[in-house]
Amino acid sequence: MAGTVVASGPGVKRFAVGDRVVNTFWGGWIDSHWHAEAVLAGGPGPSVLASHVLIDAAWAVAAPATLSLAEASTLPCAGLTAWFALAETGALRAGETVLIHGTGGVALFGLQLARLHGAQAIVVTGSEDKREQTLALGASHVLLRDSDWPAEVRRLTHGRGADHVLELASGSNLDRSLQAVKQGGRVSIIGMLGGETLRASFYAMVLGRVTVQGIGVGHRRALEDLVRAIDVNALKPVIAAQYGFDELPAALDHLERGPFGKIVVTL
């Protein structure tokens, strides 16, 4: 969600009427480790497909000054998820290689953030149609999912393997990602397009000394870090289409077709 503050309760000091804000995906998760009192937006926290939303002031972050509200609305989930995997927990550095699965919202943010940090991004996709768009966004290489992409990643990295993997498919795809990651590399489990049960070789994980981490979006402080990075670097989220509030069914249909970037509903 992104919007403008229209009213504030007594004692609120973080924001004033007229401020532009985005919500935090986990209300109450401010920093450090996730805790049980954190409230998920939309379940059971306030849903955001509405003209007015009431949230705790601690559950909001100032929107980037360089983005429109439509662009800013893509940050609390997709943008922060990619940032948390690569920058917050992954300590991404220039010269590293990030292997990214797919061309959805998190994947494209991962690609943009990899390039922002001076890393190269290799993208695996099942759609030949999205290849040119992905290359234009800054991917070093785009590999097709039905190819021997683990071997190609090894070849492109001179046998070393990828430093980071954004695993958005999971299922049995994890086993192939482990074949493509470097010794001591990191795999971030984010999506489950391939199923909610992970399947991977014991030997690939243990002998490769791979860190496999689950990513459940991120906390408020990391979102604030992301906002600063966006403003400093003029990063623009990829929006596939914007729909009016009354066009929600069409927006959901577009989402189901697999857009290149985010779908935004505006009021």
Protein architecture, described:
This protein is α/β, with parallel strands linked by helices and about 270 residues long. It folds into two domains: about 1-75 and about 220-265, Medium-chain alcohol dehydrogenases, catalytic domain (Quinone Oxidoreductase, Chain A, domain 1, Alpha-Beta Complex); about 90-215, 3-Layer(aba) Sandwich (Rossmann fold), CATH 3.40.50.720. About 30% of the residues lie in helices and about 20% in strands. It contains nine helices and 13 strands. The protein has helices spanning about 70, 75-90, 105-115, 130-135, 150-155, 175-180, 200-205, 220-235, 250-255, and strands at about 1-5, 20-25, 25, 40, 60, 95-100, 120-125, 140-145, 160-165, 180-190, 210-215, 240-245, 260-265.
Give the arrangement of secondary structure elements:
Layout: E1 2-4, E2 20-23, E3 26-27, E4 39-40, E5 60-62, H1 69-72, H2 75-88, E6 97-101, H3 105-116, E7 120-125, H4 131-136, E8 141-144, H5 149-156, E9 162-167, H6 173-180, E10 181-189, H7 202-207, E11 211-214, H8 220-233, E12 239-244, H9 248-257, E13 262-266
Parallel strand pairs: 6-7, 6-9, 7-8, 9-10, 10-11, 12-13
Antiparallel strand pairs: 1-2, 2-5, 3-4
What characteristics describe this protein?
three-stranded antiparallel beta sheet; Rossmann fold; six-stranded parallel beta sheet; Quinone Oxidoreductase, Chain A, domain 1; alpha/beta; 267 residues
